[in-house]
Design goal:
rod-shaped; mainly alpha
Length: 195
């Protein structure tokens, strides 16, 4: 009789250990998923801040860059695409287009000494550049979190808990090869304005 009690106790201890271990795995996966969501929310906040600064920048630049309507249009269209993007992949593509449009705008601004001396423009340029750096930092942090999460849900024994909970791999914040191509910046000559 003693051996059956010991066997029963060992079985219940094993079962309790398995349940506790499963709960620990589950809690770890939930923590990683929540860290992914938090990291993405941090990027989204910065993208929103950048979106809010774009109209101010465009208004500041408009008076100086009358012959650069294509550049201003590219910034405006990139902002609209970025605001309408829903998924992480769409936001990544829109983010790259926005960054390229802003680079083009700042490059064109080099041709306008009065604009470069405008205090409001300089503040906006500095603010947007700061936000761009923070977005890049947050993107790296987000991708690290996604990589950790995707690795964990693919490893044994986490894969069993992940499949039971229908946890799927998450997308990185990246862009396609076509979207990595450099944007060509064309400068309109000031001489065409008098015609």
């Amino acid at each position: 009789m003693d051996s059956s009690i010991i066997s029963s106790a060992a079985f219940f201890l094993f079962l309790a250990g398995a349940v506790v271990y499963t709960v620990i795995l589950y809690n770890g996966l939930v923590r990683l998923r929540n860290e992914n969501d938090r990291a993405w929310a941090n990027i989204d906040v910065l993208l929103k801040q950048r979106h809010d600064e774009i109209p101010n920048l465009v208004e500041t630049v408009k008076g100086y860059m009358q012959h650069e309507q294509q550049t201003l249009l590219a910034v405006t269209q990139a902002r609209a695409a970025s605001m309408n993007a829903a998924s992480i992949g769409q936001k990544a593509v829109a983010d790259l287009k926005m960054a390229n449009a802003l680079r083009g705008l700042f490059a064109v601004a080099e041709n306008y000494p009065q604009l470069k001396a405008n205090e409001n423009f300089l503040k906006l340029q500095s603010r947007i550049s700061e936000i761009e750096e923070r977005i890049a930092d947050r993107r790296e942090f987000f991708n690290d979190d996604v990589n950790t999460y995707n690795t964990r849900i693919a490893q044994i024994p986490d894969v069993f808990v992940a499949s039971f909970l229908s946890l799927k791999p998450r997308a990185f914040f990246k862009v396609s090869e076509d979207d990595r191509k450099l944007v060509e910046v064309k400068f309109a000559s000031a001489q065409t304005s008098g015609a």
